[in-house]
Amino acid sequence: MAADGRGGRADRQRSVAFAGVIGGVAGAALAGHRGARAAGAGAVAGAAALAACEAVARARQRPGEIPPLWARIATSAALVAPLGWAAGRVTGVTVGADRIGADAVVVAAGAWTAGICAQLGIRVPVGPQRGQIVHARLPRTDTAAWPVVLSDEDPYLVAFPAGRIVAGATREQAGFAYHATVGGVGGLLAGAAGLAPGLREAELLETRIGFRPVTSDGRPLLGPLAGGLIVATGHGPEGLTAGPWSGLAVALLALGQPPVTDLAPFDPSRFQA
Q1: DSSP strand E in the chain: where?
Q2: Whether the predicted pLDDT of 139 surpasses 80
């Protein structure tokens, strides 16, 4: 009896393992049209579903009542197929406790885009470029109508009402290190005073820090990543300028319409080997 019990367990284990292999192949085939990641997810889902069905059948039914393997595979395919088709496709976003369903999702999270996409198992080659910006004020000076000053090299100068002047910005590969530096602030102040000597008497108000999303080739990432997932990031220092155009482009993609301009130079997959 003991030998028969061990043999029965071994037979069940082999049967479940074989079912898992079949389910994995089926799941990968069903989801393969959505790319390698989707195929992997489909394989896992298929293997788990078919192996679970086989294990339940072996555990709960008497040997004579277990349907043929082909019948169990066919029955389990009905469970595996939806998982395979859904694998690798976004179905919405979760905001707090709310879930918002969507046919397409645009990730436009700036320098944090890579971190968000990494949670989905997708690598996005974009990273942060730190920028330090100095704010100063010229007392009793109306600066509301002053022009923007763009020099050949940083800093630029931007005027706001109430005497506020902004000088920016550094371009540093410092990760997400959120702090100002003596060299960064000193360079901005020296450059600003060289462009506009009258700023030497300005009151130093504050230094602000931001993180630009940048790519290795300087071009943004605009386009689809996976089923229903679209990315828009990597504009570097041109985000304010190119943002409206990029927003229109990805909005059209999300609606299933062709963009007004060829986006091939900005294809997110261009960095793949």
Answers
A1: 92-95, 98-101, 105-107, 127-137, 156-159, 164-168, 203-214, 221-226, 229-233
A2: yes
Does domain 127-214 match CATH 3.30.9.10?
A: yes
At 95, is the secondary structure helix, strand, or coil? strand
Question: Domain 92-125+217-271 class?
Answer: alpha beta
Confidence of residue 106 (pLDDT cuts 50, 70, 90): very high
- Please, are residues 229 and 107 in contact by the beta-carbon 8 Å criterion? yes
Helix, strand and coil content of the chain, in percent to the nearest 5, comes to 50, 20, 30
229-233 and 164-168 as β-strands: parallel, antiparallel, unpaired? Answer: unpaired
What per-residue confidence (pLDDT) applies to 98? Answer: 82
Q: In what order do the strands lie in the sheet with 156-159?
A: 156-159, 164-168, 127-137, 203-214
Report pTM. Answer: 0.66
Q: How far apart, in whole angstroms, are the C-alpha atoms of residue 194 and residue 231?
A: 40
| Structure-block tokens of residue 272 | 């793949």
